[in-house]
Amino acid sequence: MTDAEWAGIRRGLRFGQVYEGTVVRVPRPGSIGIFVDIGLTVGGFVDALMLPYEGDDWPTEGTAMDFEIWWADDRQQIRLKPSDPRRLRHDFTDFVGRFRPDWPSLIGLPVPDPGPPAFGGPPPGSP
Q: Global pTM?
């Protein structure tokens, strides 16, 4: 996929937008995250920070469930979070309050073009 194609897909994404997805890969339960097919030409990923602490509580390969758009930047991957609170880290509300307090106000807004990479860190608003 070209950068222009990815930019076109990203422009159609909204924070909190829900996709039904299927977990396609769980490389190291409890440590990395899970890869999700949400039916787009670009993959989805749920970071371990979003998931329960115990890898045994993570969804397994083949699990179909709803996921929400959490972030998308210049990497050709959509960052997701599980919609089901039972599949989120147990302190998700506190986590959001500390690291992404603007999350509730972003829901429904378009995922912005990240622009050029910022020196020394991730784009503004990234988890």
A: 0.84
**Tens of pLDDT, residues 23-62:** 999 998 778 999 999 999 999 999 999 999 988 889 999 9
- What gap in Å lies between CA 21 and CA 79, rounded to an integer? 12
In angstroms, the CA 25 to CA 8 distance is: 26
Looking at the DSSP assignment, which residues form a beta bridge with residue 110? Answer: 14
Integer Cα distance of 62 and 24 in angstroms: 6
d(CA 39, CA 60): 18
Which residues have C-beta within 8 Å of that of residue 95, sequence separation ≥ 6? Answer: 49, 89
Classify residue 74 by its DSSP letter: S
Q: What is the pLDDT of residues 97-106, one digit of tens each?
A: 999 999 999 9
